[in-house]
Specification:
heterodimer; A: alpha+beta; five-stranded mixed β-sheet; four-stranded mixed β-sheet; 33% helix; globular; B: globular
Chain lengths: 541, 320
């Protein structure tokens, strides 16, 4: 106390801190002036298309890399034997100019184009195709995911330099997609004695596609350039830059700054921040449903979820239309199954169950779930209706949605704990079937097969982790695989969806809409069931 | 050395005990569904490929053996040498964090001393209050606000918000290049520093308050020394010793602390690398980062010890 009194009477001058503070401010100010004056802006070339990706791909080797970033880039560099038609989703020729299918649907013979060259000038031939498939089969190659798909192929062989033949173990209408959609890599580049997994060509890809690889700066960008000697029709856009921007808010701001040509928006951004005059004058906005299905899966092993009436009641307790309006501002669609909503396979005749808590309560009572002991929680045979729902913890949207659902269930006397887990941990719990319920999603790819999700053989260790087992459904799954008549097969898939609707093993949630803003200087922008394709865009001068 | 082995051993077992399996992840991600029987053999093959089929203690032994030759192995994720991945990211994170530490010290030590010399004055209270307000603002929130208002397309567009350098900046003269990097670093560094001011300046204030109550300060004043000499020479040199101890703990904390900022500003640094590696269960990369972090921490503790000798003549390494 005494010291302080002295200090107050005779305040010591703080000499250096005074000029120190002033000096710092001066220094910062001059730094700022210097820095803002040397801004470096690259003049914009209208033929350069700038896109963003959230992270570096693992590798640009299409055989071993499995992330979504690589798909978007390799689509431009590499090509496969066939492609899917944008509108009809039927196979169309690409590297194979035609193909023949044997009567028993076991042998597929592909006739390759003989006018295709790799980006380094070498000729594309049957050996490249064989080499690609040999690598997928090779246990030393880190291609676990692709190898699983190739299990149904018995053998592949070269008939001559421009003909290859695949023999299947069993007929499967998707067989042509399993082999035809795999991206072909150049044998002469990869087969030089160095290890395949860490091969430098994984970072300097050489393909046959409309764009050539130019540069990959880790954490910064990947640049491609138009392949001027492309065998097919050359695209109008000359240069493609994939900027790596890891934060979605930053991405949106960069888009607004005019440094990106395309951006995917969240519903809230779409409705509020992107609805300004300036934004609309610079961007065209497109909207389409993604081939994604989100759902809540009920673990059918648990006593309360065993009963179909209980599951139906749960679906009636969840206000899906309300959640859709609140969470996505209407930018999504309520589903009745996990088939792709853009596909003819999706059964549009089934109407989603409405939100109806009264009806749900009746169903629960009917199933014997009543609050016998008066603790506010439904119970039956001494088991109270209480379970934990798992979800990917980083997902803020799920957290908000689940809070709404939890409250709705609570009013009906059902206790749902929500547990957010990190991805890899969640995956392990689910595969070991240690969960009550789960919120998750499936992505429909051209060769995804509902067999893995619903067939009873896939219960332990497979994708049917909820334990769904239905005899008619199992039979339909196997029959549909081998049905090559489109109409008959679609009819089977429609029947399967009726069964799903009756059984409600999942409460199907939404197909989210993709909300895309594209710079107005591009024309011929078309929206297809599987999204947009920049290859066909034309630059307005 | 034993400390180092201890740290890496614990890290090794923690990551192997954590739920989630890199091989299963690899076999399933990118595929829409999981198929059962067929994939089992493939999972086994991949496990062998990664060297995960051996018992954990053997795996750790092999890892240590390779470490002696500075071979950190190959990343599970992209099959590039781990050392190369770290060499790409470490300089960026170090630049960011060393700049941050320097700025924190430059700003908060004078503030702390100023407060110590004017204790309980109105200005002292104001400084304390504002520093604590800064301290309690979460960095990710401040980062988002800065991005929208200072780097976005709607308000002021002063600063870049992505990465550490512009495209084509390598064609600039060296001062232009450095300037370009600095310009990129303004917002991330602001986000990393402001939270550190409160802690360090309070610390400096307490330390200085203690020192100016000592007899030798009174003696110095009594001798008629100028205030500048009293505080600058006799006060500061004694007050700064505890602050140096803090520096030893600050560097490792900042290496970890820049994960969020690196993610938000798309800076390809160690923080983002370690975050992505943990999500992918990329064991070789996680282990290498842990080893390097441990090494850096030990080095910074050593550096602090050396700096004691520089600032405090009473401390020496010689026996006596």
């Amino acid at each position: 106390m005494k010291q302080e009194a002295v200090g107050r009477k005779n305040p010591p001058r703080p000499p250096f801190s005074k000029w120190g503070l002033g000096g710092i401010i001066m220094l910062l100010a001059s730094c700022f002036a210097l820095l803002t004056s040397c801004q470096f802006r690259v003049p914009k070339d209208p033929f350069t298309f700038i896109d963003s990706i959230p992270a570096d791909p693992d590798s640009l080797n299409p055989i071993i890399s499995i992330d979504s970033m690589q798909t978007g880039i390799n689509r431009l560099i590499y090509e496969s034997l066939i492609k899917l038609d944008n509108t009809t989703l039927k196979p169309r020729p690409l590297l194979a100019k035609s193909w023949m299918i044997s009567k028993d649907h076991l042998q597929y013979t592909f006739y390759l184009r003989n006018d295709v060259f790799w980006h380094d000038g070498m000729k594309f031939m049957a050996d490249d195709v064989l080499y690609t498939f040999e690598q997928i089969r090779n246990p030393n190659v880190d291609a676990a995911a692709a190898r699983v798909d190739l299990q149904m192929v018995d053998k592949f062989e070269k008939l001559d330099d421009y003909t290859v033949r695949f023999t299947f173990k069993k007929p499967d209408y998707k067989g042509i997609l399993f082999v035809g959609m795999i991206r072909i890599i150049p044998k002469h580049v990869f087969d030089n004695g160095s290890d395949f997994n860490s091969h430098p060509a994984g970072r300097y890809p050489v393909g046959t596609g409309p764009y050539r690889f130019v540069e990959w700066r880790t954490g910064k960008h990947i640049i491609l350039e138009r392949n001027e000697s492309y065998w097919g029709e050359r695209p109008d856009i000359k240069r493609v830059v994939h900027k790596i921007i890891s934060d979605s808010n930053a991405t949106f701001q960069v888009l607004k700054k005019g440094e990106l040509d395309v951006g995917t928006l969240r519903p809230i951004q779409w409705a509020r921040q992107a609805d300004t005059k300036e934004f609309n004058s610079r961007f065209n906005k497109h909207e389409y449903y993604l081939p994604i299905c989100t759902f809540i899966g009920w673990n059918l092993e648990r006593p309360f979820f065993k009963d179909r009436r209980v599951r139906t009641a749960l679906t009636h307790l969840i206000n899906r239309e309300g959640i859709k309006k609140k969470m996505t501002l209407g930018k999504s669609k309520v589903l009745t199954s996990c088939f792709d909503i853009n596909d003819p396979e999706y059964n549009n005749n089934i109407q989603p169950y409405p939100y109806n808590p009264e009806y749900a309560k009746r169903l629960l009572t009917e199933a014997g779930w009543v609050d016998h002991n008066g603790d506010g929680i439904l119970d039956k045979d001494g088991v109270s209706f209480q379970f934990a729902l798992l979800y990917g913890g980083g997902d803020a949207a799920s957290t908000r949605m689940l809070t709404i659902i939890r409250e709705d269930l609570e009013h009906a006397g059902i206790v749902m704990d929500i547990q957010g887990l990190e991805g890899a941990t969640l995956y392990q719990q689910v595969i070991e079937r240690k969960f009550g319920a789960l919120i998750s999603g499936w992505v429909n790819t051209p060769n995804s097969d509902p067999y893995q999700i619903w067939h009873s053989s896939q219960i332990n260790g497979g994708s049917n982790f909820i334990g769904f087992s239905n005899k008619e459904f199992d039979e339909l799954l196997i029959k549909a695989r081998q049905e090559f008549d489109d109409n008959k097969r679609i009819a089977m898939y429609h029947r399967m969806q009726e069964i799903l609707h009756e059984e409600q093993p999942y409460t199907f949630l939404f197909a989210p809409a993709s909300l895309v803003a594209i710079d107005k200087r591009f024309s011929n922008v078309k929206v297809y069931p599987r999204g947009i394709s920049m290859i066909e865009w034309i630059v307005k001068q | 050395m034993p400390t180092f082995i201890g740290i890496t051993l614990i890290t090794f077992f923690v990551i192997h005990l954590a739920p989630g399996d890199p091989v299963a992840l690899k076999a399933q991600t990118g595929k829409s569904t999981i198929s059962t029987q067929v994939s089992k053999t493939i999972v086994e093959e991949t496990r062998k490929l990664y060297g995960l089929d051996k018992p954990p203690h053997v795996q750790y032994g092999l890892w240590l053996k390779r470490l002696v030759t500075l071979d950190f192995g190959e990343s599970f994720k992209d099959h590039r040498p781990v050392l190369k991945k770290i060499a790409e990211t470490l300089p960026i994170t170090l630049t960011l964090n060393i700049l941050t530490i320097i700025i924190i010290y430059i700003i908060s030590v004078p503030i702390g001393i100023f407060s110590a010399l004017n204790p309980k004055s109105g200005l002292d209270k104001l400084i304390t209050l504002s520093l604590f307000i800064l301290y309690s603002l979460p960095a990710f929130w401040v980062a988002s606000i800065l991005i929208v208002f200072l780097g976005g397309g709607d308000y002021l567009n002063w600063f870049p918000i992505v990465g550490v350098v512009s495209d084509g900046a390598s064609s600039l003269p060296w001062y232009g290049f450095v300037g370009n990097v600095m310009w990129h670093l303004v917002l991330p560094v602001v986000c990393l520093t402001y939270g550190g001011f409160a802690f360090l300046s309070r610390f400096a204030r307490a330390s200085m308050l203690e020192v100016i109550r000592q007899d030798y300060i009174r003696t110095a004043r009594a001798k008629g020394l100028s205030e500048w000499k009293v505080i600058g020479k006799h006060g500061l040199r004694n007050a700064i010793i505890p602050l140096l101890t803090l520096m030893g703990t600050l560097l490792p904390a900042l290496l970890g602390g820049s994960v969020i900022i690196e993610q938000i500003f798309s800076i390809p640094g160690m923080g983002r690398l370690s975050f992505e590696s943990v999500l992918a269960r990329d064991y070789p990369t996680i282990m290498a980062i842990a080893a390097i972090d441990a090494f850096l921490t030990l080095i910074s503790i050593l550096l602090v010890d050396i700096m004691y000798v520089v600032v405090d003549p009473r401390i020496t390494f010689e026996k006596g």
